[in-house]
Amino acid sequence: MNNSKLRCLFTCIIATIYLVSIPLQSQAVTPKGYVSQGGLTWMPISFDMPWSDANAYCTNTAINGQTGWRLPTKDELSALYNSGAMKDQGGTLYYTWSSTPNGRGLHYDVGLNDGYVGPGLGTTYYYVTCVRGIPESVQTKQNQPVIAPKANFISQGGLTWMPINDSMKNWTDANAYCTNTAINGKTGWRLPTKGELTTLYDSGEVRDQGWSLNLTWSSTPASSGHYAVTLLNGLVLAGYDMYPGNVTCVH
């Protein structure tokens, strides 16, 4: 064997050893079973659990090295089923928990095998997927021209009230939003009390303002969590903190 062939053989052996020695984690590989759909990243479905455990898992677990996950809504799951994006991904396509309450202390589940939507008893073991990201519907709203908000801000009871839109939050997120967000260029906002919300309803100031007038979180504690007030009819309910509600902040 001549010198040129020996040099080539030596070089090829060294290159092969180097390539084999590269750690697998240094190669950018999309995790198997993860799906991008509707502006969201979806975790593969492989296990089932009761609703409260499923909700806690998505909220508190670092999945694929990232935090900020949550249970999908009923509509997001239905859109996922209709898209067919989960087919042939290796996950379990069966009844899957959503974050959407049905108003009777239950939460909806969606059949990713057949599209069925129904209320699920919280102790039932349904399958779990978690989502992360900004839904396309929210992205669309964010990309629309910003209208000056002052027209829908209300002054009532010595307070300035932030308008309520269709973006619902659980109580913890609602409280954090008011406390930590600069709204209309100002900080120092908070959730209103139950009494302040009731007075706002009684004043009639919320009529014809374009607000969403469903159950709205207050800062007043209740036995089950915190009180919420329906600004459509003045009804006061003791709410569970994990459930989504409307949000207005006061300053």
Strand order of the largest sheet: 1-2-8
Q: Give the number of domains.
A: 2
The mean pLDDT is 81
End-to-end separation: 87 Å
General shape = elongated
CA gyration radius, whole angstroms: 25 Å
Major sheet size, sense and barrel closure: 3 strands, antiparallel
Helix content: 25-40%
Number of strands: 13
CATH architecture designation of the largest domain: Roll
CATH topology description of the largest domain = Mannose-Binding Protein A, Chain A
Poorly predicted ranges = 4-30, 145-151
- CATH class label of the largest domain: Alpha Beta
What do we call the CATH homologous superfamily of the largest domain? Answer: Mannose-Binding Protein A, subunit A
**Tally of alpha and pi helices:** 6
Order of H and E elements: HEEEHHEEEEEHEEHHEEE
Q: How large is the share of residues in beta strands?
A: 15-25%
> Class by helix and strand content?
alpha+beta
